[in-house]
Specification:
alpha+beta, two-stranded parallel sheet, about 10% strand
Length: about 120
C-alpha cells in the first residue's frame, strides 16, 4: 500500500487535464490509485437507511420514491434522531465502515440539512 496524500493544492490545468482524459483512461487512473491505497480484493460492506420514505417532491423519473408514482407506500416523516443514531451505532458495532442515511427529497430544506448535520456530528465518536 502506498502513502498517497490527499491533495488540496490542485491547479486548474491539472483538473482540466483529468476532465480531458478519455473515459477509460480516467477509469484506469482512478482504479490504479484505488489499488495503491486500498486492498484490491477487500469488499466494503455498507448499510443504507432510508430516513424518510415516500412522496418525494423531487421528480426523478427513474426513482419509485417520487410522488409521481403510486407505489402503495405511506408517506413517512423523517425518522427520530435517536432511531438514526441507534442504527448508526449498530452498523459500527457490526463492523461496517459506512452507514448511509438517505433523506429522500428533503435535502433542499435548510432546516433538514442542519438537522442531518447535527445528527452526523453526534454519530461520530
Amino acid at each position: 500500500m502506498s502513502q498517497l496524500q490527499v491533495r488540496h493544492d490542485w491547479k486548474r490545468e491539472e483538473i482540466e487535464a483529468l476532465f480531458a482524459l478519455p473515459m477509460n483512461d480516467l477509469l484506469f487512473k482512478a482504479h490504479s490509485i484505488h489499488r495503491e491505497v486500498y486492498d484490491p480484493n477487500e469488499v466494503q460492506i455498507s448499510r443504507l437507511l432510508s430516513i424518510k420514505t415516500g412522496a418525494c417532491p423531487e421528480d426523478c423519473k427513474y426513482c419509485p420514491q417520487s410522488a409521481r408514482y403510486d407505489t402503495g407506500l405511506e408517506k413517512e416523516r423523517l425518522l427520530a434522531m435517536e432511531t438514526v443514531l441507534t442504527e448508526a451505532r449498530s452498523a459500527k458495532a457490526a463492523g461496517l465502515l459506512v452507514s448511509a442515511w438517505v433523506p429522500l427529497g428533503v435535502t433542499r430544506k435548510k432546516k433538514t440539512c442542519r438537522t442531518l448535520s447535527k445528527w452526523y456530528k453526534k454519530s461520530k465518536p
